[in-house]
Amino acid sequence: MGKQYFTITYGCQMNESDTERINGQLAELGYTEAPAMEDADIIILNTCSIRQNAEEKVYGKIGEIKRVKEKNPDLLVGIMGCMAQENKGKLISRMPIIDFVLGPYHIHDLKEVVEEELAARQHVVRTQMNPERVKDYSELRAERKSRTFAWVPIMQGCNKFCTYCIVPYVRGRQTSRTVEDIVREAEGLAEEGYKEITLLGQNVNSYGLDFRDGTDFADLIRALDRVDGIERIRYMTSHPRDMTFDMVDAMADSPKVARHMHLPVQHGDNEMLRRMNRGYTIEHFMELLAYVRKRMPDIAVTTDLITGFPGETEEMHQATLRLLREAQFDSAYTFIYSPRQGTPAARMEDQIPDDVKKRRLQELMDVENEISLAKNQAMEGRVFSILVEGPTKQDAGHWYGRTSTNKMIIFPKTDGLAIGDMREALVEQAQTWVLKGKLV
Ligand code: 5AD
Ligand code: SF4
Fold first, then answer.
1. Which of 243, 194, 195 is CA-nearest to residue 217?
2. Which residue range forms the structural domain that includes residue 418?
3. Of ligand 1's atoms, which has the minimum distance to the CA of residue 339?
4. What is the pLDDT of residues 70-104, one digit of tens each?
5. How many domains does the chain have?
6. Are 142 and 208 in contact (CB under 8 A)?
7. What is the pLDDT of residue 355?
8. pLDDT tens digits, residue range 302-316?
9. 89 shares its domain with 108
10. Is 136 helix (H, G, I), strand (E, B) or coil?
11. CATH of the domain at 33
């Protein structure tokens, strides 16, 4: 029997995408995917450092892997992704069952490292930042999970240095792929039958600014809009400071760009935004949001919020609750502030006690859940186009698809239905996170 790999992904969509390229490298070495960790010849954890709890999950998993390795001493264990970059060789000294540590810029090295490991069994740590590699991204074969929608990384890194965020330290400075390179990848995907692409970057609105030739995200959208066969274009994540009105226009002018925008506001108080180094005010954010909705009245807007940032007073917290009511997001991902070593906010005074953070988080969720539900209820009785993604996890008799606004509709499967079909679905019953209905 051939060799098998088992890869576990933590964190964001960029990591999901990286995992597909990691698996692509292993496939080139002749490995196939193992059904379970216990069957694998190589286990790779593609890790995330964004919050403490993301890291704790990884440490827990390494504990489990240790037991697998006791039974199978030939097992290779690799740590990749953001924790690899953050902790480097320290990971191996703390946990010697780890064979290699490769940072986000070293997916290209994986094949060579695995072969070296197999031959010599030496610990390998590679964590240099090598932004040039972003330019060769298309050379990395991806083992894509879906045949319908595909991740397309358009850049790496981030220059924003929000004071809470570890990303600039683990993913380095922003480096964009060229428009031509990205369009070529999209054309290839269309030829293979992909209908939907999701453009990925830590801050897509500053795409291309590193070329210093005037290229920006609006140009990329306009170029991708012309790729035949791609029916839907999504992107993640936006930054309210770098999203220009022209980018909103480019989006509004393209029927292919999904009517969904994930626009993290982080907080409802200007002093908090200043301490977070976000570079905009709530007034600017609301103006941008109003323009987005004016150009695309049917759009769904979602956001991220951090609660319990250092110095957050009760009044500041109330400002976020007010913002939620005013902005009427379709959903909000709310996070408890987690101090990240090496970031400016971790050294700030007035850290907020855990019990206060938890209470504030609950208050944010209570307000937002009501709004999300009301937004979804407004869809009841209406018909929406969905791209069919497949059976739900719980029940093969029920399938789901997504609207352009990124809402998930679950419906009873009908005969002749295939993954990737564009269908019309009637929404019958709304819940906070999903909609139930039927195909019409
Ligand atoms: N603590 C809590 N949440 C964080 N985020 C980023 N860094 C932190 C941190 N240190 C959140 C932000 C970001 C999302 C991906 O994660 O809201 O938008
Ligand atoms: Fe986690 Fe950020 Fe790295 Fe994504 S880029 S895996 S969210 S730390």
1. 243
2. 383-439
3. 10
4. 999 999 999 999 999 999 999 999 999 999 999 99
5. 3
6. no
7. 98
8. 999 999 999 999 999
9. yes
10. helix
11. 3.40.50.12160
Boundary (domain end) residue, out of 64, 97, 131: 131
Q: Domain with 423 in it: what CATH number?
A: 2.40.50.140
Ligand 1 centroid, distance to 29 Cα (angstroms) = 36
The predicted-structure confidence for 161-178, as pLDDT tens digits, reads as follows: 999 999 999 999 999 999
389-413 pLDDT, tens digit per residue, is: 999 999 999 999 999 999 999 999 9
CB of residue 82 inside a 6 A radius of ligand 2: yes
| CB-ligand 1 contact for 158 (6 Å cutoff) | no
Q: What is the pLDDT of residues 332-350, one digit of tens each?
A: 999 999 999 999 999 999 9
- 335 Cβ inside 6 Å of ligand 1: yes
Same domain? For 221 and 368 the reply is yes
Q: Please work out whether the CB of residue 14 comes within 6 Å of at least one atom of ligand 2.
A: yes
Ligand 2 pocket mutation, candidates 16, 22, 102, 171, criterion most atoms within 8 A of CB:
171
Domain shared by 75 and 149, yes or no = no
Write down the pTM of the prediction: 0.95
Quickly list H helices, 110-152: 110-120
Note whether 233 and 364 are same-domain residues: yes
Q: How far apart are the first and last CA of the chain?
A: 47
Q: Are residues 23 and 103 in the same domain?
A: yes
CA atoms within 13 A on the CB side of 7: 23
300 and 325 assigned to the same domain: yes
DSSP secondary structure string, 304-319? EEEES-TT--HHHHHH
